[in-house]
Specification:
Layout: E1 7-10, H1 12-16, H2 26-37, E2 41-45, E3 67-70, E4 75-78, E5 83-86, H3 91-101, E6 106-110, E7 119-121, H4 124-130, H5 132-137, E8 142-144, E9 160-165, H6 167-178, E10 187-193, E11 198-204, H7 210-221, E12 228-232, H8 238-243, E13 246-250, H9 255-264, E14 267-269, H10 276-292
Keywords: Hydrolase
GO molecular function: magnesium ion binding; phosphatase activity
Protein name: Cof-type HAD-IIB family hydrolase
Length: 293
């Protein structure tokens, strides 16, 4: 029997957000607020950077101290903008990765700053062909530097990088990275969208992941892992699902991930387009409320 949940970490894309939408459903919003009102710390844990995450949550009546674990764990801030935790990828490592992974797809590096230059890439047209919606949504933050290495001078460390392309290409990129001299200096976390033949390989400081950031957040809050729940749908969620004492996989996840969930004993909930997060949180709040009676 699990203890009542005190901390829940929720992925965004494919989990909290409906498919092809940037608006959280009314039922999910209500569930987030009800969980907060019940004394549960609700954290967002996403591959998105902070500036691409916070606007989706603003104006919904959520607490300003709500933690946002962004860039797949590299940065944690509150919804109100207060810094909590941050990690960097060494510039020398990033330069080496450019040479290694450039042949596989579009490379982007993220810097922890606001405005133009937060995102650096070297081929705008190539990026637009592969991830047009992302490019348009982030156009004001993008700066073009060719070659990318010129933006990665010593001391100017990014918080993360990413290479994106087809699913098979990103599997090859991950394999190449793991076989390279940079394998011990960089964490690789893959996200896949097979229906679109799109995959993203996030490049993070060693050891950094959503699970790493969630563990550190729980320690700050004095919350045991048995009291921590994680909800996600993709490969970059696996570390936090494995760390959390209570893990929930979205039923819209890929077949192999749902199979993994079964072997791990993780619960499954309704798909993102049927408010699976709300379905789970409503049960969590009801159980916490009954435990107090």
């Amino acid at each position: 029997m699990h203890p009542p949940v005190r901390l829940v970490a929720i992925d965004m894309d494919g989990t909290l957000l409906p498919t092809f939408s940037q608006t959280i459903s009314p039922r999910n919003v209500q569930a987030l607020k009800a969980a907060q009102a019940a004394g549960i710390t609700v954290a967002i844990a996403t591959g998105r950077r902070t500036a691409y995450t916070a606007p989706l949550l603003e104006g919904l009546g959520l607490r300003a101290d709500m933690p946002l674990i962004t860039s797949n764990g590299a940065v944690t801030r509150t919804l109100g903008g207060e810094p909590v935790d941050r990690s960097h990828l060494e510039a020398r490592v990033a330069r080496g990765i450019c040479t290694l992974l450039r042949p596989f797809g579009t490379l982007v590096f993220t810097f922890d700053q606001v405005g133009r230059g937060e995102l650096i890439l070297e081929d705008f047209e190539q990026a637009h062909q592969r991830i047009a919606l992302w490019v348009e949504a982030n156009r004001d933050a993008i700066d073009i530097v060719k070659p990318l290495e010129d933006a990665l001078t010593d001391g100017n460390d990014p918080i993360q990088g990413m290479v994106t392309g087809g699913v098979d290409k990103m599997k090859q990129a991950e394999k190449a990275l793991k076989a390279s001299e940079w394998a011990g200096s960089c964490e690789a976390v893959r996200t896949e969208y097979p229906a679109r033949d799109l995959s993203i390989l996030d490049l993070l400081p060693p050891g950094v992941s959503k699970g790493w950031a969630l563990e550190r957040l729980a320690a700050r809050l004095g919350v045991d892992r048995k009291e921590t729940m994680a909800i996600g749908d993709n490969w970059n969620d696996v570390d936090m699902l494995e760390w959390a004492g209570q893990a929930v996989m979205m039923s819209n996840a890929a077949h192999d991930l749902r199979t993994l969930a079964k072997t791990r004993g993780w619960k499954q909930t309704a798909p993102n387009d049927q408010d699976g997060v709300a379905v789970t949180l409503e049960m969590v709040v009801a159980r916490r409320t009954s435990a107090k009676v």
